[in-house]
Specification:
heterotrimer, A alpha+beta (198), B mainly alpha (629), C alpha/beta (170), B: 629 residues, mainly alpha, 26 helices, C: alpha/beta, seven-stranded mixed β-sheet, 7 strands, 21% strand, globular
């Protein structure tokens, strides 16, 4: 798609200035154009312009690289965030109208662990159904408390601040907390809620 | 209602409602990366999800996403095999359309429009596609491309009408349409398409900022417009259009050269001369700056300063000759693969403040001018190779940094190993487990005693009292007991009776004290018992945890580092080979580019010489006439 | 071709690992490395992230309100911004003091139009290991640092122009 078109236009662009002095200016040049082929020391015949079919080796490399990265990610998670202490926090949006989320901060057992500023592109990704993996960390087993705050601007230009808190019991399995921003039916105001799955 | 209250009281603790299962969260995370065009990241996340068994129930959805990510990251083989693995028999209508969409993209990429149309026909978005809009921009784009390929330009335009101004696909679509029109020699149509593209309402910042690609295509469109306008002999419009081109960037020189040509056509030789002079004075050599060297004296000729023109022609001749000599020399050097490799490295390396690099860069600059040789690599195929080359360099850099990362992991792993070994030592150390046993026995014994105590009534016996007495009371009781023994042994008669009576009475006081307080003290004992039980439970929990952690850790983590290093080494070798192959290809391109330029310069040289001859002639004729009079 | 965020993610995770007392060296920004990513709030209120500027050449100018040469430099950068905007070039000003009022004051006085980001907490200044004020960092279309210029004297902007022109031609 892009290839065909731009090759054409480039040839067009590159050809025109070259052609101009030879074509527009004086009669002699046209004769010169043909004569130059013989008169000038001919450069070696152009090597066959064959772009090597290199796609396949690059893809193979990328695939191996991804496998390596995958294994590294898993290893890293096991090492730094073993299941028995792992807690992962996700953020999702389920809204009818776009809500301009500005920032989210999360406190885990009283300590701030995340403060994220959202760019337009990120908000758009959330609005379209993407879920952000906001935080991954370690907590002790037993009771833990997570508090999250968000600020943002609604479609009417009004600013919103919301908070939500959830207490959860950390077991041996990884804990997943989902922070959800949704509209509460008739009110059309963004709501913040937290849910935990173990 | 509860939520409402909690809004007001920010520290409200809400009972955790049921959330999305992990698989949904995982799928959503992949989408989050994808929507931000981080395709490799998205693909990586799908692979991690597969390894962690979090694909979810809807595997079709998962596979379609995975294939889509691979495709966007130009891993076409992976995409193809993923889509082929989707079981077509069980697909919902929506999934069928999704699959058709992906297949259409693949056909489009290969330029197989017939196959693409077949797939596109399967897509009819009566219902929402992504839940937000009824028209999928990329589908409409592909339909327009099919129409263009079939020569139905008006139809193509109608498809493109569905796209937003800030969609890069619209820019590509219009561009291709413009080119197609021109090839079909419909200059009006070509002009319309390019004009629409050049006039797109694009913003350079903010949420709906146009992508770099769109901006680039808009510039190209403006340039193309000027050419089309010239072809249509509409020179005034071409001037206006060229005036709209930014004075900087990739197309600046070509634009200027075109402008100069226009000025010459319109007879505005002064303007032309100024433009050629500007171009000529650039410190790098491109087609346009070369052309300017020749065109400048040409414009001077028209301004009637023949001597100046001649002088400039001679100057041009010299520069062309020098350039040709340089190119011939470079051509020979370019046979050496190392020369090319170094050149590419200079390209990838930035300006540094260190001397060695500065020297190297200066040397290259001298020989080649600014980024001249980028012109030689300006074809689309080479651009692809160059992009891949840079991507491979990034991979190589990542691999180089990997051992350090692995080292850090090994340290963490080592630390954990040490701690769990310590814990295990603790565990296996007889004392801990034995102590636990002892503790348990103690607890059981006391519990039994406590039970017995609770059941029986108050009994005035040392046994009973002993259980409930405080230390002071016990001390007293012991003393009394001691005294009783003494009295019994050493006194008799009425003294004995008297003393025993006193001892009895004192003991009785203590007894009644205890009896009164009994409930309380029993409760206290029970409480202590509970605490001991909790303590025991805690110890048990710790033992279990340690046992678990140790076993968890032992799950094969230890050996993986060497394997990682091996895999990385293999990849490094592959990457080196791939880089070499591309360097060879780029070297070939460079040589071809050099050959092209040599040919061009030779032509210019010829025309220059003709110009010199002519100017010399005319000067001579002019002076003859003067002499003759 | 979008580079993965692997490097920055891994970097963050490794930093966490550092809390387990691992010796990891200080990371100064060097040429030819990926420019460290950051997201900061602009004076206008929107959040801007460096990585979202991939595909464009970016000139990052670190400045403070108390620094004279910074104030001199800013209008020149604004000119640069306007001139090359359409060719895929962006200027980002980062105020290292981290407060809105002094920054807004300077912006009002100099009338610059490129985005001014507030480095609340000086995290970004740390990441970029600034040695002088102002400092200009130029990042190419692939997100690689290509030029670092500490300080400013009149005439330095010519060098910026040269570097930017070279990079936008890539």
């Amino acid at each position: 798609m892009r290839r065909t078109a731009t090759r054409h236009i480039l040839t067009l662009i590159l050809a025109m200035p070259l052609a101009w002095p030879l074509v527009v200016y004086g009669g002699a040049p046209e004769g010169a154009g043909t004569a130059s082929g013989g008169a000038a020391p001919a450069p070696e015949a152009e090597e066959a312009a064959a772009p090597v079919a290199l796609d396949s080796d690059l893809e193979r490399i990328k695939k191996d690289l991804l496998k390596l990265k995958r294994d590294l990610v898993i290893l890293e998670e096991d090492l730094l965030f073993p299941a028995s202490s792992q807690v992962a926090v996700f953020l999702s949006m389920d809204l009818g109208e776009l809500f301009q989320l500005d920032a989210v901060s999360v406190k885990l057992n009283g300590k701030e662990v995340v403060h994220h500023l959202y760019t337009d592109r990120q908000v758009d990704a959330l609005y379209r159904g993407g879920v952000q993996k906001l935080f991954i960390g370690n907590v002790k087993q037993g009771q833990n408390r997570l508090t999250a705050f968000f600020t943002g601007r609604g479609p009417s230009g009004r600013d919103y601040r919301r908070a939500t808190t959830v207490e959860f019991e950390k077991s041996f399995e990884p804990a997943f907390v989902e922070l959800a921003i949704s509209d509460s039916g008739a009110k059309y105001q963004p709501e913040f809620s937290a849910a935990v799955s173990n | 209602m509860k939520n409402f209250i909690c809004e007001l009281i920010l520290s409200c603790v809400v009972a955790a409602p049921v959330g999305k299962p992990v698989d949904e969260l995982t799928y959503g995370s992949m989408l989050y990366s994808y929507y931000q065009q981080e395709y490799q990241q998205a693909l990586l996340e799908t692979m991690v999800a597969e390894a962690q068994d979090r694909r979810g129930e809807d595997t079709v959805r998962f596979d379609l996403a995975k294939g889509s990510f691979a495709f966007s990251d130009r891993m076409y083989e992976t995409a193809r095999t993923t889509f082929e693995s989707v079981d077509q028999t069980e697909l919902t209508e929506l999934d069928q359309m999704r699959l058709a969409f992906h297949l259409a993209r693949e056909y489009h990429r290969r330029g197989e429009y017939a196959g693409m149309e077949v797939q596109l026909d399967r897509i009819s978005l009566k219902s929402n596609w992504l839940g937000r809009s009824r028209v999928h921009p990329e589908v409409e784009f592909m339909r327009s491309e099919a129409a263009v390929a079939a020569g139905n330009y008006a139809e193509a335009e109608s498809y493109l009408a569905a796209l937003d101004d800030d969609d890069p696909l619209l820019a590509y679509g219009l561009y291709n349409l413009g080119v197609a029109y021109r090839e079909a020699e419909d200059l009006e149509g070509s002009r319309r398409a390019f004009e629409r593209l050049a006039n797109l309402k694009i913003r350079t910042k903010g949420k709906k900022a146009a992508s770099a690609e769109t901006l680039d295509l808009v510039q190209r469109a403006k340039l193309a417009l000027s050419f089309v306008a010239r072809e249509q002999q509409d020179t005034t419009d071409a001037t206006k259009v060229l005036g709209g081109l930014p004075g900087e960037g990739r197309y600046r020189d070509v634009a200027l050269a075109s402008y100069g040509g226009l000025a010459m056509e319109q007879g505005d030789y002064e303007l032309a001369a100024r433009i050629w002079l500007t171009l000529q004075n650039q410190d790098y050599w491109t087609s346009s700056t070369a052309q300017a060297r020749l065109a400048f004296p040409m414009s001077l000729e028209q301004l009637a300063s023949r001597e100046m023109a001649l002088a400039q022609y001679r100057k041009a001749e010299q520069s062309f000759e020098a350039r040709l000599a340089l190119l011939t020399d470079l051509r020979t050097q370019a046979e050496d693969p190392n020369w090319v490799k170094n050149l590419l490295l200079v390209f990838s390396a930035p300006e540094r403040d260190d001397e060695r690099m500065a020297d190297l860069v200066a040397r290259w600059r001298e020989q080649l001018g600014h980024t001249d040789w980028l012109e030689w690599l300006a074809t689309e195929d080479t651009h692809q190779v160059l992009m891949e080359w840079r991507e491979l360099l990034a991979v190589r850099d990542w691999l180089t940094a990997l051992p350090q990362k692995l080292g850090a992991f090994e340290q963490v792993a080592g630390e954990r190993r040490r701690r769990s070994a310590e814990a295990r030592a603790l565990l296996e150390d007889e004392a801990l487990l034995a102590n636990r046993e002892v503790l348990e026995q103690e607890i059981t014994k006391r519990k039994l005693a406590l039970d017995a105590l609770s059941k029986s009534g108050a009994v005035r016996s040392m046994d009973w009292m002993g259980k409930l007495a405080t230390p002071e009371e016990r001390a007293l009781l012991d003393e009394l007991e001691g005294m009783r023994a003494l009295v019994s042994a050493h006194m008799d008669g009425s003294d004995r009776k008297k003393w025993l009576g006193r001892i009895d009475r004192l003991e009785g006081t203590i007894f009644w004290q205890i009896a009164d307080d009994r409930a309380d003290r029993t409760r206290k004992l029970e409480k202590t018992h509970m605490e001991n039980l909790a303590l025991l439970a805690d110890v048990d929990a710790r033992i279990t945890r340690v046992a678990n952690a140790e076993s968890e850790f032992a799950a094969g983590v230890e050996t993986d580092f060497l394997i990682f290093a091996d895999r990385a080494d293999m990849l490094t070798a592959d990457v080196a080979n791939a880089l070499d192959a591309r360097q060879v290809a780029l070297a070939g391109e460079l040589r071809r580019g050099m050959a092209r330029e040599m040919k061009e310069v030779q032509q210019y040289l010829l025309v220059t010489r003709i110009g010199i001859a002519r100017a010399t002639d005319e000067l001579a004729m002019g002076s003859e006439t003067v002499e003759g009079e | 071709m979008k580079k993965t965020k692997w490097l920055s993610t891994a970097g963050a995770l490794i930093a966490l690992g550092a809390s387990l007392a691992l010796p990891l060296g200080a990371h100064a920004v060097d040429l030819k490395e990926d420019a460290p990513d950051f997201t900061l709030k602009s004076l206008e209120g929107s959040n801007l992230r460096l990585e979202e500027y991939r595909g464009q050449v970016v000139l990052i100018n670190f400045w403070a309100s108390w620094c004279g040469p910074c104030r001199q430099e800013m209008p020149l950068l604004d000119r640069l911004h306007h001139r090359y905007e359409d060719t895929g070039f962006a200027v980002l000003g980062v105020n290292v003091e981290g407060e809105v009022e002094p920054a807004q004051e300077i912006v009002d006085k100099t009338n610059v139009t490129f985005p001014i980001l507030i480095d609340d907490g000086q995290k970004v200044s740390d990441m970029y290991n600034l040695q002088a004020m102002p400092t200009t960092v130029v990042v190419d279309r692939d997100g690689v640092v290509r030029y670092i210029h500490p300080g400013y004297k009149p005439g330095d902007e010519a060098k910026y122009v040269e570097v930017v022109k070279k990079l936008i031609r890539e």
